[in-house]
Amino acid sequence: MEQLFNPFEPLSFSPDKCFLTGNKTDNKTFVPVFPQWLLERYNLHDSGIMLLDGIKMKYSEMVLPASAETVSAIKNLDEITREAFEKGYDAVTKLSETILFQWMARVLYGVLYQDFVYVIKQHAQSGKPFEISALLKQRLKNLVLMMQSLVRPVEYRNFTPWSIRCYKVNISKDIFNYKDETQDLNFCLSMNDFGVVACLQDNGAVAEYNKEVLDTVGNAVLHPAQFEEMYGRFIYSNYLLRKLPDYKIRNENGTTVFELPEIAAGEMKKFSPWQDEIFAQVLANLWKPWGLTMNDIYTFPNSPLSYLINERTYEFIPPDYIGLPY
Prior knowledge:
single chain; alpha+beta; 4-stranded antiparallel β-sheet; 3-stranded mixed β-sheet
């Protein structure tokens, strides 16, 4: 039986090994973490992201070693998503969730890959071993295996691994807003006239937990601050979600099969108690562009400020009513 590639046992981030499949490369073939068209459209080549230890790396320098098979798959992914992302919300909503997952996972893992390469090198020079928590290893190993749906069949038996929602957002066509959170694999993207929020390995629990809010918002057009609040709800809910045992994963005739662990149904989607003050702090971090502080957002015993749901009527708040600049 073919061995499934796991770059975390042992840690394996070599320029001659494909980041996705583990196959040997020629040391010269790479794919960009962020699609080339995106860097050109938003003039991001010389902009950068802060890595661990305060090291800044340019978007254009962030690349991943890839086999010919992976290069072809990423090129196809970028062509499909470019067409949709440039057209906007209506086209993006027609993309499958699998395509959106593949795109987001490639970016999130691609950025983290740069961190790993840098930190492993630094630790080697100092003679200290580099270690990752068991839970993060588990999640990232699964993320890589799920991303392999780009090049091989992947099946999820009777469940969906993620919660993904797309919204029409009143955002300038010249703004590219990307955020991720690696511990719980959260992702947020807004550009053109759309935004996507996602938890990439919650097994659909976050969307179910927030069903009432999601149903109330529906397909409404969102103010950027409302979109950030939705991301905040996803982040905090995912943080509260019970951490499950690992999936059952096996290779069946070339298909990677994922199954949920056998635990009681009530335990599968169990959340810790919601704490308004902590959620308010999440919102304060996301609403910094509007100058909102904790004092603006939360005062006990009141509920945290919401720009999505009216506290008295429980109805969606139209964007023009919230009084914040776009």
